[in-house]
Amino acid sequence: MDDNGTVVDRILVSFEGAGSGVAELTWSQMTLWQSIEQSGRSKTVPYVAELPPGRTVEAVAGDLAFMMSRHQSLRTRLVFDAGPRPRQCCAASGEVALEVVDAGDADPARVAEAVSERYQKADFQFETEWPVRMAVVRNAGVLTHQVLVIMHTAIDAYGLTALVADLAARDPVTGAAAGPVTALQPLEQAGKQGSPAGQRQNAASLAYLERVLNTVAPSRFGQPRHPGDRTIHQVTYRSPATLLAVRSVAARTGINTSPVLLASFAVGLARFTGVNPVLAMLMVSNRFRPGLATAVSAQILLTPYLIDVADISLDQAVDRATQSALNAYKNAYYNPYEQDEVIERVQRERGEEIDLSCFYNDRRQQDRGGTGDSPTAAEIRAALPESTVHRTGEVHPPRRKIYFNVDDPPGAIEFLLSADSRYFSPDDMAALVRGIEAVAVEVALDGHAPTGVRAAAKV
């Protein structure tokens, strides 16, 4: 059975919106463009959803016209008119295609996923193509699914959430927006980043980076522990106990669950590798900044997170994680090309390469605050046998020594760990994620217990 479906129509949808022009990329657009340059492939954000009964092609086309007209990022292409680094060019109007795909005898849900995969695999034409690809899937003449794939330079996961919410808030009769766009759009954001205030923020973030680089040991994981060429493997670990544990700590301390997970990751990694302080590059969404909470655009930047977890209690590790995370978030707003220049300069001055290949990305979409309930110790322990681990063979995520993602499926915390097989075997990876779960549970059950990490002896 062919799950690809058949494209039976390609409708050109017209749009027209306020704001147009050419400007420098925003800082987040720059860092995402750098990832495209490094990989040689387009980076995308996909979305597949079932359509409600009775949804028509005309209605979906109306949604497409609405979002293209309303949000500058979706009608922004790249121009290479000032050297190798692109700029953003936002158009006031244009046309974008909506494909209609017939599922035939195939499962329409599988066809929708196949369409999404086709959209993601085909590189975007940055200068001539809109950053939005959209389709509807039909089965026996009835629309069943909507497929949307957007260039990562135009949106991130939180921006997609904001876009979906914006579409859902339209008046069901008139189709009017719930209100005006109040978030910064990319052209305005680029202007603010180039202003004196923006440049002061940039300088402060780069100064923080330089302080961290001059503090840390150059190596994160020592020499390769396993023979062979570099390959990247993945382990997915779903842990209901971790969810209960971090909720318990959040309820007890009044903080949100993010620093609890950060502390658990740091202590677990330090226990496993013997390397402390722990340095990880955090993937930070800058949506806590004014005007960015509901921005339909990309707001992600990387910043170093440094924490010493030796010879302290687990509760103290959470306290340190809270402060270290605040420092990192505060300084995650900068020009990434200038970040590269700082890293290169400090490495020249130190005469050694600094390993920045440990990445941490908390991608949870649900509320990270304390829920008010406090799971009992018995409930946390009882959930431990429910944890599951799934190992994947060689994959092609970012080529880092460690890339650690945190997700929030229903009823659990999920760790997705990608690692360089020369430093971490699949068994190592499984042991590491179990160790991180163990730390989270220990914090919940006895926060006064020591981290078990000892400070390196002074020479």
Would you write up a description of this structure?
The chain is of the alpha+beta class and 459 residues long. The chain has two domains: 6-184, 2-Layer Sandwich (Chloramphenicol Acetyltransferase), CATH 3.30.559; 195-445, 2-Layer Sandwich (Chloramphenicol Acetyltransferase). It contains twelve helices and 15 strands. The strands form three sheets. It has a seven-stranded mixed beta sheet. A five-stranded mixed beta sheet has the order 1-6-7-8-3, with helices on both faces. Helix 7 packs across helix 8 (257-273), helix 8 packs across helix 9 and helix 8 (257-273) crosses helix 12 (426-445). The longest helix is centred in the last third of the chain and has 20 residues, at 426-445.
Helix content: 25-40%
Overall pLDDT = 93
Oligomer: single chain
Largest sheet: 7 strands, mixed
Please tell me how large the radius of gyration is: 23 Å
- For the terminal residues, how far apart are their CA atoms? 67 Å
Number of helices: 12
| Spatial order of the strands forming the largest sheet | 11-10-12-14-15-9-13
Beta-strand segment tally: 15
Characteristic key phrases:
15 strands, Chloramphenicol Acetyltransferase, 23% strand, 459 residues, 5-stranded mixed beta sheet, single chain, 37% helix
